[in-house]
Design goal:
Blueprint: H1 2-16, H2 19-24, E1 32-33, E2 35-38, H3 53-65, E3 69-70, H4 73-82, E4 90-97, H5 100-112, E5 117-121, H6 123-128, H7 133-143, E6 148-153, E7 156-161, H8 165-179, H9 184-198, H10 215-221, E8 226-230, H11 243-260, E9 267-269, H12 281-289, E10 294-296, E11 303-304, E12 319-320, H13 325-332, H14 335-342
Parallel strand pairs: 2-4, 2-12, 3-4, 4-5, 5-8, 9-10
Antiparallel strand pairs: 1-11, 6-7
Helix pairs in contact: 3-5, 7-8, 7-9, 11-12
This protein binds zinc ion.
Zinc ion binds near residues 96 and 271.
């Protein structure tokens, strides 16, 4: 029965997002812009899981065929600042972190479709081949052979199930969520303990499956379609840092981008990005003080063109690029916003 219900619901979404109905319902969508957030691209040769090139291509082709307008982050921010309208049925794309697979697989596709995208770079990855603790956790738990283990979280332990791929995926999410509440010293302590339990050393520099793009690659890819923005230096949780360190993370990543690229986008993207958890009002002010013009969170939702500029501009929401195409269609269409309007809180 759940399968049948799902099929019916997918068919319903298909009908409700049809071209005719989309035009009729356009007023429900005119004030909001879905901004999609992508991470890794699937690369079997380096055992990297992620979005498939086919699913991204299907999405970009769909937008082209259905009269959507892919706008750049730069255009979106100018429209918000000046209360200007954007082209109808506007959609925007962002990618986080700056991995090699993003540069080699996704960015040429955006360029081919002339669909603007902004890539937020954690600059220490490109500068020093550094990789952050949240990816190291994933690396270690994927290497674990035991069916379960206990992760040290400060003075407590978090039991993690690792028997299947699905369990590992869930455990990675749980481990990251728990570690986010710790300070840097405690995270290092937990990671050391985890490495011992798994029996694998964490390489100092990113291994092949976490290879970052190079500055040369970014400079070659930079265009009026592909742009880059700052995503901190070390990809740390800003809310866990003292103010001066959080400020340095923001300012130095922007300065490094300005050194290497011709026209970086002055829009920040918070690492991990949940408001109230990974960044706070303090960090929003730090971004503003650094002269940056706006910032993205990773909280799900539309960017609302009708909202007042403060504080929305420094915590713009995004949707994770969905695995299911039917969900992508729903976010792009009037339907998701219509649901939020009529049935608030039922995400
Ligand atoms: Zn990130």
């Amino acid at each position: 029965m759940p399968l049948l219900r799902k099929a019916l619901s997918d068919f319903g979404i298909h009908l409700l997002t049809s071209r005719t109905l989309s035009w009729v319902m356009q007023p429900l969508r005119s004030q909001v812009v879905p901004v999609f957030m992508l991470h890794r691209m699937e690369d079997a040769s380096r055992a990297v899981p992620g979005h498939s090139v086919d699913s991204l291509e299907r999405a970009l082709q769909y937008l082209k065929d259905h009269d959507y307008n892919v706008v750049s982050v730069r255009e979106l921010v100018v429209a918000l600042q000046n209360h200007q309208p954007l082209p109808k049925r506007a959609v925007a794309f962002t990618m986080d972190d700056g991995f090699y697979d993003q540069a080699s697989m996704a960015l040429p596709l955006f360029e081919h479709y002339q669909a603007p995208v902004t890539v937020f770079l954690a600059t220490d990855m490109l500068d020093h081949q550094k990789w952050s603790w949240d990816y190291q956790v994933e690396y270690l738990l994927n290497k674990a052979n035991a069916g379960s283990l206990e992760l040290k979280i400060g003075s407590e332990v978090l039991p993690l199930m690792l028997g299947s791929r699905a369990e590992k995926r869930l455990s990675i999410r749980q481990a990251r969520a728990a570690l986010k509440s710790l300070n840097l010293e405690q995270v290092a302590d937990s990671m050391g303990d985890l490495a011992l339990k798994v029996g694998v050393d964490v390489p100092e520099f990113a291994p092949p499956s976490y290879q970052p793009m190079t500055w040369g690659q970014a400079a070659r890819l930079e265009s009026n379609v592909v742009e880059f923005g700052p995503h901190s230096r070390q990809h740390l949780i800003l809310s866990q840092l003292p103010e001066d360190e959080a400020e340095a993370e923001i300012r130095q990543s922007w300065a490094t981008l300005c050194e290497h690229l011709k026209h970086p986008v002055p829009v920040f993207c918070y690492p991990n990005g949940r408001f109230g958890k990974d960044f706070t009002q303090r960090d929003q002010k730090l971004v503003q003080r650094a002269g940056l013009q706006a910032a993205f969170s990773a909280d799900p939702g539309y960017v609302n063109l009708g909202a007042s500029v403060e504080p929305g501009l420094f915590a713009m929401k995004r949707f994770a690029f969905p695995e299911r195409f039917v969900d992508f269609k729903q976010y792009c269409s009037w339907l998701e916003n219509g649901k939020e309007k009529f049935f608030p809180g039922r995400r």
